[in-house]
């Protein structure tokens, strides 16, 4: 029997420092057969295992059509990610996946794509941006909205600058607190929706970030007559097994690891914003 | 037409002998430290003759009735769950060689044939649920599978329900209907025996059985009837997700001391955590899983702190999952009416009463 709990060895083919506490690992399974059969979709994740330390769930941000290599962008927050930051090109780590249900990229074809994220860069949504830009003609307008607490928190400034020059691409950034050089809006990312250019009845909205932000954003989108079924949220909970066994990631009747992390709004709207749930 | 056999009490040792010959380690009920526990059973004399329990919210006591019965009690704290879903087990090991390469290796439990004697209806129903969880999804669990495949189940129909039992209300007992290899109903001088599987049949063939008489069968039915007298009930599908903001959660949260007993005694709870045990030489590491509980503050930890932080949050997570989330996940409630969480809660919290207050 296949053992879903068992990691497989992968080599770090490249390591990119994105920001002081954010780095990207480009990985490849060392077993050629495993690598050849490997596939993933935007919004899915892998469990990354660091020898002797432990495992963490991390989204896959690279393009699914080139599954021969796959990228993970990791932010240092605690025990495992801290230790992972010391890894170098040529080191080996354990990987198992891909897991979960990702973004509805097939449903979104031919439509406008509205991305709303909050917090320090939202890895699950980076995969969507990359996916759309690689297949530009298959999608309508692309609206990228990102909110941060403080303008200094914004990472990937150059990327935003580059994306904003592309046709049919709108970048809307907001910070709650700003420094004098901040060229974007101040306030909440959800307040920027009035400036966003998209057709409400032909748009797929994809949200990622703090639950309260996603709840408010969903509400605003509904007010703008985006259908509830066209609003998608990437949820986060503690994870250990990633295969629906350990119970840690439960969110009502859903296991975020296997039924998500991406959910259509109607599947979880009754649970959103309930404090301590 | 089910065949009913009769095994005399004086011949019962033949069943234990047979299990040994067939290579099974027999696990059965016995009295230890004032409670019925399931542990290695070598001899008929270890069975809990004449022992019966009194259970109430936060209360469990054994007393002697002087009767000849071995199985006239309702469940103690644990029965089957630890034998399929182990409280602690190694999952895999990794060795790092000189060049930094990683070699991962599954550690499967050693196949050990185990026969469990005295399994009750509520626990067989719970086992069926655990099978569904660990084996019948997209990722069958090889550790659970290994233990499950080596399990022989000898059920016993209940004749005495504790005051905390409500299996009639959940539809899971007291009669055992499926999931057994052999099924026993205890009467004065022995057992009415039914066969539930090929393995059970194989064993039965070697036992000194007689055909059960109509009177013996009727007596077995009558004795089981006594266990259907239960006072607690649980609605089939309480609408708990509509009641997430109900003030009663604060009330139960103020009583709950978040010990997690309710989850560790529950035969359907499946939460576990994975932990890493690096060897001192730094080159190898063992990955283990342990039972975990939604009452553990770290259960919902994400960076920046836990999502659920108070006993109210824990209890609400537990009850809504058990009685509502389970319907979405497994097509039925996660409660089989065994009553353990009521008896073993140190402050006597009773889920049937809490549901009553929430839905009143
Ligand atoms: C589906 C999914 C995708 C993710 N994608 C990314 C990504 O692309 N990049 C990134 O930087 N982070 C991502 N995260 C968050 C990342 O998993 C956590 O930051 C990480 O687990 C923290 O581990 P730690 O040991 O460093 O932190 P600690 O706070 O020390 O956590 C210890 C343990 O708690 C659990 N845990 C803690 N935080 C989380 C969390 N947020 N989610 C799940 N389990 C957690 C893990 O089991 C972890 O090992 C993702 C989380 C999920 C659920
Ligand atoms: S919830 Fe309580 S009564 Fe129901 S199966 Fe679990 S321990 Fe038994
Ligand atoms: S309900 Fe009772 S048994 Fe469960 S955690 Fe609270 S105090 Fe412990
Ligand atoms: S991470 Fe274990 S059930 Fe989802």
Structure description:
Chain A: InterPro entries: Cyt_c3_hydrogenase_gsu, Dihydroorotate_DH_Fe-S-bd, FAD-bd_FR_type, FNR_nucleotide-bd, OxRdtase_FAD/NAD-bd, PyrK_electron_transfer, Riboflavin_synthase-like_b-brl. Chain A: It holds the Pfam family DHODB_Fe-S_bind. Chain A: This is FAD/NAD(P)-binding protein. Chain A: It comes from Thiothrix litoralis. The complex is a heterodimer of chains A (about 280) and B (about 350). Chain A is an alpha/beta fold. Chain A contains eight helices and 15 strands. Chain A has helices spanning about 30-35, 80-85, 105-110, 125-135, 155-165, 210-225, 255-260, 265-270, and strands at about 10-20, 20-30, 45-50, 55-60, 70-75, 90-100, 110-120, 140-150, 170-175, 185, 205-210, 230-235, 250, 255, 260-265. In chain A, the strands form three sheets. Chain A has a seven-stranded mixed β-sheet, with helices on both faces. Chain A has a six-stranded antiparallel β-sheet with strand order 4-3-6-1-2-5. Chain A is globular and about 50 Å long. The model of chain A has no long low-confidence stretch (mean pLDDT about 90). Chain B is α+β, with helices and mostly antiparallel strands. Helix content of chain B is about 30%, strand content about 25%. In chain B, the strands form four sheets. In chain B, strands 3-2-8-9-10-11-1-12 form an eight-stranded mixed β-sheet, sandwiched between helices. In chain B, helix 5 (about 165-170) links the parallel strand 9 and strand 10 (about 180-185). The radius of gyration of chain B is 22 Å and the shape is globular. The structure holds flavin-adenine dinucleotide, iron/sulfur cluster (SF4) (2 copies) and FE2/S2 (inorganic) cluster (FES). The site of one iron/sulfur cluster has 13 residues of chain B, from helix 9.
């Amino acid at each position: 029997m296949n053992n879903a709990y068992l990691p497989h060895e992968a080599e770090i083919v490249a390591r990119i420092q994105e920001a002081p506490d954010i780095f990207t690992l480009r990985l490849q399974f060392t077993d050629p057969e495993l690598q050849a059969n490997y596939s993933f979709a935007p919004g899915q994740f892998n469990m990354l295992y660091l020898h002797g330390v432990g495992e963490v769930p991390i989204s896959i941000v690279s393009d699914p059509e080139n599954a021969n290599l796959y990228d993970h962008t990791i932010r240092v927050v605690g025990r495992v990610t801290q230790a992972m930051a010391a890894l170098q090109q040529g080191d080996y780590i354990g990987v198992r996946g891909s897991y979960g249900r990702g973004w509805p990229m097939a449903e979104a074809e031919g439509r406008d794509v509205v991305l709303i994220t909050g917090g320090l860069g939202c890895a699950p949504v980076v995969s969507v941006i990359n996916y759309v830009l690689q297949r530009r003609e298959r999608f309508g307008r692309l609206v990228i909205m990102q909110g941060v607490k403080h303008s200094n928190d914004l990472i990937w400034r150059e990327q935003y600058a580059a994306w904003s020059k592309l046709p049919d691409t709108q970048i809307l950034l907001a910070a709650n607190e700003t420094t004098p050089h901040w060229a974007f809006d101040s306030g909440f990312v959800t307040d920027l929706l009035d400036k966003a250019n998209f057709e409400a009845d032909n748009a797929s909205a994809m949200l990622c970030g703090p639950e309260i932000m996603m709840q408010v954003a969903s509400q605003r989108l509904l007010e703008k007559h985006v259908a509830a079924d066209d609003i998608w949220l990437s949820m986060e909970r503690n994870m250990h097994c990633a295969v629906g066994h350990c119970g840690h990631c439960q969110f009502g009747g859903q296991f975020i690891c296997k039924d998500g992390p991406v959910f259509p709004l109607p599947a979880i709207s009754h649970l959103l914003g309930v404090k301590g749930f | 037409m089910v065949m009913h056999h009769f095994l005399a009490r004086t011949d019962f040792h033949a069943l234990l002998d047979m299990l040994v010959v067939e290579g099974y380690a027999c696990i059965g009920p016995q009295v230890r430290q004032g409670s019925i526990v399931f542990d290695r059973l070598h001899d008929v004399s270890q069975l809990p003759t004449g022992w019966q329990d009194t259970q109430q919210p936060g209360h469990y006591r054994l007393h002697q009735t002087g009767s000849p019965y071995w199985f006239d009690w309702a469940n103690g704290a644990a029965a089957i769950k630890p034998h399929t879903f182990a409280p602690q087990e190694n999952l895999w090991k990794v060795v790092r060689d000189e060049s930094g390469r990683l070699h991962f290796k599954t550690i499967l439990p050693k196949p050990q044939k185990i026969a469990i004697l005295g399994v009750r209806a509520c626990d067989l129903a719970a086992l069926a649920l655990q099978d569904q969880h660990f084996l019948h999804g997209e990722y069958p669990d090889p550790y659970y599978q290994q233990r499950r495949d080596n399990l022989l189940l000898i059920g016993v129909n209940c004749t005495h329900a504790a005051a905390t039992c409500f299996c009639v209300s959940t539809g899971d007992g007291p009669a055992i209907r499926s999931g057994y290899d052999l099924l026993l109903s205890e009467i004065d001088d022995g057992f009415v025996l039914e066969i539930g599987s090929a393995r059970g049949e194989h064993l039965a063939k070697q036992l000194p059985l007689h055909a059960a008489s109509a009177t013996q069968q009727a007596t077995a039915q009558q004795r089981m009837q006594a266990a259907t007298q239960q006072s607690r009930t649980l609605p089939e599908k309480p609408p708990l997700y509509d009641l997430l903001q109900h003030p009663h959660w604060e009330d139960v949260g103020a009583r709950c001391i978040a010990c997690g007993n309710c989850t560790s005694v529950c035969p359907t709870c499946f939460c576990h955590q994975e932990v890493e045990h690096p060897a001192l030489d730094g080159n190898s590491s063992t990955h283990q899983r342990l039972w975990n509980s939604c009452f553990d503050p770290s259960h919902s930890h994400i960076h920046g702190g836990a999502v659920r932080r108070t006993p109210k949050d824990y209890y609400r997570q537990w009850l809504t999952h058990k009685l509502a989330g389970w319907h979405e996940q497994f097509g039925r409630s996660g409660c089989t009416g065994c009553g353990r969480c009521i008896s073993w809660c140190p402050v006597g919290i009773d889920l049937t009463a809490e549901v009553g207050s929430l839905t009143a």
